[in-house]
Amino acid sequence: MVTRKLKIRDLTLRDGQQSLFATRLSQGEIDKLLPYYENAGFYIMEVWGGAVPDSVMRYLDESPWDRLRIISKAMKGKSLLSALSRGRNLFGYVPYPNSVLEGFYKEAIDNGLNVMRIFDALNDIDNVRESIKLINELGGIADGAVCYTVDPKNEEPAEKPGFFSRLFGKKADEPKKIFTDEYFVEKAREMERLGAKIITLKDMAGLVTPSRAASIISKLKAALKVPVDFHTHCTPGYGLASSLMAILNGVDILDTNIWWFGGGSAAPAIELVYVFAKKLGVEVEANMEAVGQIRTHLLGARQSLAAFDLNKDKMPRNFDPLKDTLPAEVDALFDSAIAAAKAGDEAALLDACHKIEDYFGFPKPNEIVKNAEVPGGMYSNMVAQLKALGASDLLEDAMKLIPMVRRDAGLVPLVTPTSQIVGSQAVSVALDRKKGNPDYSNPSNQFISLVKGEYGHTPVPVDPAFREKITGSPEEKPYDVNSYKKPANPTLPEYGNVPLASNKEEELLLELLPTVANTFLRKRRAEEYAATEAAAPKAAADVKEDVVETMEPITGPTLKAPMGGRVIEIKVAPGEKVKKGQTVLVYEAMKMENDVTADADYTIKRIFVKPEDVVSTDEVLVEFE
Question: pTM here?
Answer without folding.
Answer: 0.86
